[in-house]
Amino acid sequence: MGTPLDSREAQVDEVLDRLYEEYPDTDISLNFSTELELLVAVVLSAQCTDERVNEVCEDLFEKYRTAEDYAEASEEELADDIYGITFHNNKAGYLKGIGEILVEEHGGEVPDTMSELTDLPGVGRKTANVVLQHAHDVTEGIVVDTHVQRISRRLGITEEERPGAIETDLMGVVPEDDWRMFTHLLISHGRATCTARNPDCDECVLADVCPSERGDAAVDLASGEAW
C-alpha cells in the first residue's frame, strides 16, 4: 500500500510533479480547428471515446461548417451523420438546438461564459469548462471526467463522489495555474496505467504515494470496494 503525503495539498503537488514528468506533451485529444467544432466534439464525446468522436467528426466537420448548418439540418439527418456515436439520436437534437440558439442569440458564435454555455442543449459544466479552456483560454474550474473522478479518489485527494462536488473540492487543493493541465494529466495516466478495472500498479509512477495501490491496499478508494 502506498503512503500518501501528510496533506492533500502536498499530495497534489507530488502527483503533479510526477505526472508532468511522465506526460510532458499531454493535451486535449479531440480534433478541432474552430470553436464550434470543439463545442460539437465535446458534446458528442459524452459517454463515447474521443477516438470514435474524431472518426465521426472528420466527415461531419466537412459538411457542417457553421451554426446555421446545424440549425437548418433535420434531427434525422444529423442522427444519420453522427451514427456510431453513443446516444446519437439524442445528441442530434442537441446539435440542432445548439445551432438554433447560437444563430438566434449569439450571432452564430460560441459564447465565452459559463452561464451562456450551460444554457445550450447537452452542455453541462464539464463540457463548458472544456470549451472555455480550449476555445477561449478561460479557466474557471477543473474538468471532471471519469478518469479525474476515479484517480483523484484513488489517490486520496478527494472523498467526494459526484463530479460537481469533486470539482469544487479539487479547486480548493489544486493550484489554479494547474487546473487545466490537472485534467489532462489524470486522463493520460488513466488511459496508460490507472485504468478502471485493472490498473497497472507495478508500473505506476504514483504507486508509493497511492493509498489504493493494489499490491497491499485492500480497497480501491475510487469505488470503495475491495480489490
TrEMBL record:
Residues given in the record as [4Fe-4S] cluster binding sites: 194, 201, 204, 210
Domain of life: Archaea
Keywords: 4Fe-4S, DNA damage, DNA repair, DNA-binding, Endonuclease, Glycosidase, Hydrolase, Iron, Iron-sulfur, Lyase, Metal-binding, Nuclease
Domain HhH-GPD, residue spans: 44-192
Entry keyword annotation includes Iron: yes
Matching InterPro entries: DNA_glycosylase, Endonuclease3_FeS-loop_motif, HhH-GPD_domain, HhH_base_excis_C, HhH_motif, Nth
Biological process, per Gene Ontology: base-excision repair, AP site formation
Reported function: DNA repair enzyme that has both DNA N-glycosylase activity and AP-lyase activity. The DNA N-glycosylase activity releases various damaged pyrimidines from DNA by cleaving the N-glycosidic bond, leaving an AP (apurinic/apyrimidinic) site. The AP-lyase activity cleaves the phosphodiester bond 3' to the AP site by a beta-elimination, leaving a 3'-terminal unsaturated sugar and a product with a terminal 5'-phosphate.
Descriptive protein name: Endonuclease III
Protein source organism: Halobaculum magnesiiphilum
Gene name of this polypeptide: nth
